[in-house]
């Protein structure tokens, strides 16, 4: 039988807990040591307690990087607080490291600060002579950097309960962190049971034993213990990452076919979907490559059931010709792009917002499509439902641009209440109205009624060639002009239904920050912190990127300066050969400059890391000539 957590270590009164509003914690290790699972569990436990949570996975680019190396750092960051958490925060307050070398990669990324607690596995102090020397030198270096060091015999403690510490150290660390941050032990135990629910009772019990042992070790061996007050809500919440939200959104939208080819960081969305989509009446088709995947999806959508294909940047490049076919033939299709670093295979495990211009313009000729960008994990769920509706209403492909930050970040949000209007109407199999052409483009909207194979009188020949209203191949100049105008006019028709973006802060001021996608939390937090210091800074966040949300020019004109914040590349004026005249702008800035004829600046980088509030504040200090960082 599995032990009752009530009989295991419990909170003691031997120390006072320091009440804090939030904490940023990292667990870093070599690959395969379960650091992500430890952090995901800590985040889930905290969310279930009513705390705000945001997690960011730290994943090396190589599948099996060298052990004990700077490049091999694998792990997770967990930010948890009393209030809603929307981004990864600035510097870590406490780090658990399963070896000291992986810390250097994070130090290079400015993840820590003087005063950060480093809890380091000390088995390396008595390992080989070479390792022991490196360990000692690193510990001294960390002290010089101002970190507080705790050397911990993690492996020794774990071996009291399991024969292979590598397979249990993460659960021991989870117990330790639960004690240090006053996490509910019963919730933690239930989380461990859930993680290993498909294993036998012996494995579940050994992991519970490790959890309790780590909790008890923290009772006896640390001077610092914290508590983060929580705010329980009467509303039901769910806890998941963006890819899980995407997968549930697919099913909530009534999409029955997902065709894909595995690619990081999108694949886990289909893994999550695979567990339940068949019970919802759908299927996942794993094709032999990216081209076949979208071809299958286009075929399914042509047959009447709008399909989805899920991929990342390199997959979008391979799918381009079929995307063009769907636009020319006006076939509804949902395409989810979980962006990563590029170009080519680029940074497979790192975050970037580098696909915007490729999605907007990466096709021969004029190829308009709808492009949405969710900014939260909750929006990842709802935007798939919206995408399916728009695809069918406007007979066009609809892109949903997420990224690796949203894909792997864990956050609680209110449990969605299923609504009948989320699902598609039954297929119309009534006879096709005589005299109505298959592309009978409305003069005002460009929209035409969609025939479904099997409708009596609705048969037509599908073509990717230029065609007339009857789908006959046609090269007449007037016909092609009319067809291109009609496909473009659909975007204008959709734009008429949109509202201007909400301004966070005052409606006028010195600086307006503009973002899209996963940068929202960092932008809004940085702007709020700047306003607390007296800065006249506001922000807006764009969800519709094609068509662009209305009213932007009027909003921009009320600010002295407008600047985008993005995770993609832009030149820095003053770098070798870079001038204001030849500078290349970040992608949204470039797009907005063209759309609004406004002189828009940009803050961007391609470090492969999520944007942090402090990075934005550092730029705001220069722009506004104010001290904004304590």
TrEMBL record:
A Pfam short name: POR
Annotated CDD domains: TPP_PYR_PFOR_IOR-alpha_like
Tagged with keyword Oxidoreductase: yes
Every Pyruvate flavodoxin/ferredoxin oxidoreductase pyrimidine binding domain range: 249-476
GO molecular function, a single term: oxidoreductase activity, acting on the aldehyde or oxo group of donors
InterPro entries: 2-oxoacid/accept_OxRdtase_asu, Pyruvate:ferred/Flavod_OxRd, Pyrv/ketoisovalerate_OxRed_cat, Pyrv_Fd/Flavodoxin_OxRdtase_N, Pyrv_flavodox_OxRed_cen, THDP-binding, Transketo_C/PFOR_II
Protein name: 2-oxoacid:acceptor oxidoreductase subunit alpha
PANTHER family from the UniProt entry: 2-OXOGLUTARATE OXIDOREDUCTASE SUBUNIT KORA, PYRUVATE-FLAVODOXIN OXIDOREDUCTASE-RELATED
Matching NCBIfam families: OAFO_sf
GO biological process: response to oxidative stress
Start and end residues of each Pyruvate/ketoisovalerate oxidoreductase catalytic domain: 32-216
Record keywords: Oxidoreductase
Coiled-coil positions: none
């Amino acid at each position: 039988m599995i032990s009752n957590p009530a009989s295991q270590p419990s909170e003691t009164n031997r120390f006072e807990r320091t009440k804090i509003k939030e904490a940023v914690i990292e667990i870093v290790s070599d690959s395969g040591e379960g650091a992500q699972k430890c952090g995901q569990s800590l985040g889930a436990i905290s969310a279930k307690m009513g705390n705000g949570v945001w997690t960011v996975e730290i994943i090396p680019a190589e599948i099996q990087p060298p052990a004990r190396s700077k490049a091999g750092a694998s792990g997770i960051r967990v930010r948890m607080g009393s209030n809603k958490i929307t981004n990864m925060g600035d510097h870590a307050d406490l780090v658990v490291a399963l070896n000291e070398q992986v810390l250097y990669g994070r130090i290079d990324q400015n993840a820590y600060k003087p005063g950060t607690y480093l809890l380091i596995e000390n088995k390396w102090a008595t390992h080989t002579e070479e390792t022991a020397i490196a360990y000692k030198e690193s510990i001294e270096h960390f002290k010089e950097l101002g970190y507080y060091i705790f050397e911990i015999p993690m492996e020794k403690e774990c071996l009291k309960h399991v024969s292979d510490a590598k397979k249990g150290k993460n659960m021991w660390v989870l117990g330790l962190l639960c004690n240090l941050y006053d996490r509910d032990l019963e919730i933690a135990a239930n989380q461990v049971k859930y993680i290993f629910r498909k294993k036998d009772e012996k494995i579940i019990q050994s992991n519970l034993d490790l959890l309790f042992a780590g909790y008890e070790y923290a009772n006896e061996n640390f001077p610092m213990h914290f508590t983060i007050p929580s705010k329980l809500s009467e509303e039901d919440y769910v806890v998941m990452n963006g890819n899980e939200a995407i997968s549930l959104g697919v099913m909530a939208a009534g999409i029955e076919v997902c065709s894909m080819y595995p690619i990081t960081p999108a694949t886990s969305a289909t893994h999550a979907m695979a567990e339940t989509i068949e019970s919802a009446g759908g299927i996942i088709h794993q094709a032999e490559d990216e081209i076949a995947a979208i071809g299958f999806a286009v075929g399914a959508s042509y047959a009447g059931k709008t399909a989805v294909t899920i991929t990342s940047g390199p997959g979008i490049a391979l799918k381009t010709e079929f995307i063009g076919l769907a636009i020319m033939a006006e076939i509804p299709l949902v395409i989810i792009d979980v962006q990563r670093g590029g170009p080519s295979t680029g940074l497979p495990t790192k975050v970037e917002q580098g696909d915007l211009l490729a999605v907007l313009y990466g096709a021969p000729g004029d190829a308009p499509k709808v492009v949405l960008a969710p900014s939260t994990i909750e929006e990842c769920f709802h935007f798939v439902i919206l995408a399916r509706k728009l695809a069918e209403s406007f007979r066009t492909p609809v892109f949903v641009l997420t990224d690796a930050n949203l894909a792997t970040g864990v956050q609680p949000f209110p449990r969605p209440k299923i609504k009948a209007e989320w699902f598609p109407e039954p297929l119309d199999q009534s006879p096709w109205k005589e005299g109505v052409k298959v592309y009978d483009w409305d003069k005002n909207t460009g929209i035409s009624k969609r025939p479904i194979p099997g409708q009596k009188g609705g048969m037509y020949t599908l073509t990717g060639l230029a065609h007339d209203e009857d789908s006959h191949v046609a090269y007449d100049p007037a016909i092609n002009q009319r067809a291109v105008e009609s496909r473009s006019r659909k975007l204008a028709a959709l734009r008429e239904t949109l509202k201007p973006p909400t301004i966070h802060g005052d409606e006028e001021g010195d600086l307006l920050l503009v973002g899209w996608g996963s940068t929202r939390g960092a932008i809004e937090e940085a702007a709020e912190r700047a306003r607390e210091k007296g800065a006249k800074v506001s922000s807006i966040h764009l969800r519709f990127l094609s068509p662009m949300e209305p009213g932007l020019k009027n909003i921009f004109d009320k600010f002295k300066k407008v600047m985008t914040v993005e995770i993609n590349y832009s030149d820095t004026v003053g770098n070798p050969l870079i001038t204001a005249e030849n500078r290349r702008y970040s992608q949204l800035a470039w797009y907005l400059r063209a759309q609004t004829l406004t002189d828009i600046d940009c803050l961007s980088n391609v470090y492969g890391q999520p944007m942090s509030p402090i990075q934005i504040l550092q730029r705001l200090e220069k722009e506004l000539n104010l001290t904004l960082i304590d």
